[in-house]
Amino acid sequence: MRVPFSYLERQFADIDAYFEELRPLVQTGNFTLGKPVEQFEERFAALCKMPYAVGVGSGTDALMISLMMLGIQPDDEVITTANNFIAPAGAIACCRARPVFVDSDEAYMMDPTKLEAVITPRTRAIIAVHHNGNVCDMPAIMAVAEKHKLLVIEDACHAIGASLNGTPVGSWGSTACFSLHPLKNLNVWGDGGVIVTRSKELYEKMHLYRNHGLKTRDEVVLFGRNSRLHTVQAAIGNKLIREIDFITSRRIEIAGQYDVALSKLAPEISVPPRNPAVKHVFFQYIIRVRSRDALLKHLHDAGVEAKIHYPIPIHLQEGAKYLGYKPGDLPVTEEDSRHILSLPLHQHLTPEEVGYTIEQVRNFCRKQPAL
Predict the structure, then answer these.
(1) If we measure between CA atoms, which residue out of 42, 34, 32 comes closest to residue 194?
(2) Which mean pLDDT values do the consecutive 10-residue runs of the chain (371 residues) have?
(3) At the topology level of CATH, where does 244-366 sit?
(4) Domain 8-243 carries which CATH code?
(5) What pLDDT score was predicted for residue 182?
(6) Helix residue ranges, H only, 80-168
(7) For the chain, where do the domains classified as CATH 3.90.1150.10 start and end?
């Protein structure tokens, strides 16, 4: 049996249903911003229970625009984590600010207890990454930020629909940034991103900035860039946003099945702690494995497309050498990078595929020596 990590072939198998969404748009010839983008922004804001949403070119653009519109300057320091995709650190660096990394906790999230140790007089902001669909301890992070007068941006690119104590992601920071990349829970046919905020002033600035700063076709209010959410992508997003409740509930259901089965396989398998106050939407399903590389090979040989997210922490990447980090600086992050494994998890998995994946992990664990 083959258990695919990507679900795109299955999601878009009925391609005609999507072309039906696009035909009216093609007939208008309105391929730059326009009504589909406005509709998607309104629906996305409602999904996040926020007053304002701005569609942009990607999740990375959402982070960069947030940093720039919040006034982050060259050589400012912005704190984030190193166990996730490169985008937050890259966005900070592309703004000519300096990424500063803080270690993660047992749930792969930013550890608020370690924040104050990395704050300096140059620190201006925190990017809290809601990793793999979980939610950071935002009350604790906000308490540190308020104490030190720091801005907070939520990187919610993995966490559309997630919440803490019923409060949706995006509710704490000055902005929250989302990705519509094809492999995200709410996806489109290429890159796309969204920024949400409660600030009307910030919304208006970002709304202008993503379209060259144009007030009208001929009037520029501020110098901006082209980071528009493509109208075609917005049309696809308008179709798929209607399915987000099903997508989320199915992912949570499968993750629950994995949790029950795999929590019995200690010490070879370690399931991260689950916070009952969090609605965890499971962009990825990540476990710790004592013999990670051996299990990865076993699963691949059995047709289960497991992956590693991510094998090299950002602070140890070649591109981060100038920051001066060395092995041992972020011990939890580095230990996780040697043991984490992502199992296939998406709304198009069949019960048979979920059961087969569990059984293959069990088969592997039966052959492992006891501690």
Answers:
(1) 42
(2) 96 91 89 94 98 98 98 98 98 98 97 98 98 98 98 98 98 98 97 98 98 96 96 96 98 98 97 98 98 98 98 98 98 98 98 98 91 52
(3) Aspartate Aminotransferase, domain 1 (3.90.1150)
(4) 3.40.640.10
(5) 97
(6) 87-94, 138-147
(7) 244-366
Task: Give the 3-state secondary structure of residue 60.
Answer: helix
Q: What whole-number distance in Å separates Cα of residue 251 and Cα of residue 328?
A: 34
Total length of the chain:
371
Paired tokens of 48: 């996040």
Provide the token pair at 293. 């590389």
Distances (CA, A) of 343 to 140, 255, 299: 30, 10, 9
Nearest to 147 by CA among 164, 123, 178: 123
pLDDT for the residue 369: 82
Q: How far apart are CA 243 and CA 94, in angstroms?
A: 35
Q: Can you read off the two tokens belonging to residue 81?
A: 């984590």
What pLDDT sits at residue 371?
A: 52
Start-end ranges of CATH 3.40.640.10 in the chain? Answer: 8-243
pLDDT score of 21: 84
State CA 79 to chain mean position distance. 17
